[in-house]
Amino acid sequence: MKYFLCVLGMVMIIEGLPYFAVPEKMKTWVKKIIELPDGILRKFGFVLMLFGLLLVYLGRR
Fold this sequence. Notes:
Order of helices and strands: HHH
Helix content: over 70%
Number of strands: 0
Number of domains: 1
């Protein structure tokens, strides 16, 4: 559980960094993301999950 909380904290740091560093650009990006069709967002999310799974596999190996 300690390892999970550490990983979760790191994810939050990485996710929050762009909002802290360049908030005006993030607003523009969010507006563009809202306009994307659902299918493209699903494909992008799937690719990110596969990449994350690969990173976990390589890290635990």
